[in-house]
Structure to design on (368 residues):
């Protein structure tokens, strides 16, 4: 690991100067990824970290990934400048200087031991250093021991939404991960995430919190986050998984320990019975129609497992795995014609009447 320590010691000063340029380049590249954040929120929320910027890590795993990222960019920049300088030198030094240059063949050099050694040894040394740095980062992230009191989450990828389970808390939700904020100076609060897939390969990626980790069918992968700042962090599936891959969005909502505990207590409470006549009719329609075949609502006959759990649907910020804000208007459009918001999704068009649409929207809004 001597090579790693050497680079960790000598390059920090240069990286401070180089990082703004790398950040600007990455922001241009990730503008499309962050565009889904423009949707207005249904309820007041904490700060939304809209830009998926790995150069502004706000979690310990993301910090561990930043150092090798800087080093790779620095080496690539050096290679680019060397090649550019050699190319400029050759173009200027050996440019035609008159008509006689077109009639005379330049000296032919067949092989150069020094040049061949240089372009063999130097790349080998570069690869060796990168392997050392990468190995150290991989070990620090993958072999990090989790404390006994770490929050545990089971994240299951579906086409095209996220099922989120808190096994130790008895909570099931969808598309929004709630975790407590950690502290660099105080007691750390890491969150251990168990990754599984119900169908095809997906990939969990919240750039400011952690690197990409795949969700593979019939395999269990693991990752962890330790966010240092409260707010809403935007992520998405980073592995092409079908028609609506681009709209398989995810939110990690980092809260203070007190707010997180309030959220947990609310999740454990059963939704109150609807009192409005339209909402009461909506509950009946929910049971009479095929909604119960796919969705689950605690303490009701709805026990479906193919779609998201709707027990606390009304307090979620978005619907359709992030494609629209969770408002009555968007919910009405979603129930009327799901393809209008998410073409190709597996939510069927039930051909609901206007009365059924109004009653179902009223009922679902009571699930708080």
């Amino acid at each position: 690991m001597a090579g790693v320590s050497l680079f960790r010691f000598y390059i920090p000063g240069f990286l401070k100067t180089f990082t703004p340029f790398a950040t600007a380049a990455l922001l241009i590249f990730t503008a499309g990824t962050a565009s889904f954040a423009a949707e207005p929120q249904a309820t007041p929320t904490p700060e939304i970290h809209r830009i998926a910027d790995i150069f502004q890590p706000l979690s310990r795993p993301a910090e561990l990934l930043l150092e090798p990222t800087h080093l790779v960019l620095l080496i690539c920049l050096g290679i680019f400048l060397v090649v550019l300088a050699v190319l400029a030198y050759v173009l200027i030094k050996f440019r035609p200087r008159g008509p006689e240059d077109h009639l005379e063949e330049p000296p032919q050099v067949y092989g150069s031991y020094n040049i061949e050694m240089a372009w063999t040894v130097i790349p080998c040394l570069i690869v060796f250093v990168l392997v050392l740095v990468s190995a150290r980062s991989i070990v620090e992230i993958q072999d990090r021991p989790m404390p006994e009191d770490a929050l545990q989450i089971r994240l299951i990828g579906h086409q095209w939404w996220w099922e989120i389970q808190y096994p130790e808390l008895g909570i099931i939700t969808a598309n929004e991960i709630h975790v407590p904020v950690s502290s660099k100076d105080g007691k750390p609060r890491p969150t251990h995430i168990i990754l599984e897939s119900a169908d095809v390969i997906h990939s969990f990626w919240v750039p400011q919190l952690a690197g990409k980790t795949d969700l593979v069918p019939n395999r269990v992968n693991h990752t962890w986050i330790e966010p240092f700042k409260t707010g809403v962090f935007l992520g998405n599936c980073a592995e092409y998984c079908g028609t609506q891959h681009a709209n398989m969005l995810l939110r990690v909502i980092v809260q203070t320990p007190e707010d997180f505990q309030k959220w947990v207590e609310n999740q454990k409470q059963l939704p109150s019975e609807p009192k409005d006549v339209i909402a009461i009719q909506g509950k009946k329609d929910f049971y009479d129609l095929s909604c119960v075949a796919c969705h689950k609502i605690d303490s009701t006959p709805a026990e479906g497992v193919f779609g998201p759990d709707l027990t606390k649907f009304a307090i979620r910020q978005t619907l359709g795995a992030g494609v629209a804000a969770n408002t009555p208007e968007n919910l009405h459009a979603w129930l009327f014609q799901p393809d209008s918001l998410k073409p190709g999704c597996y939510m069927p068009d039930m051909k609901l009447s206007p009365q059924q649409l109004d009653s179902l929207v009223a009922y679902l809004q009571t699930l708080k």
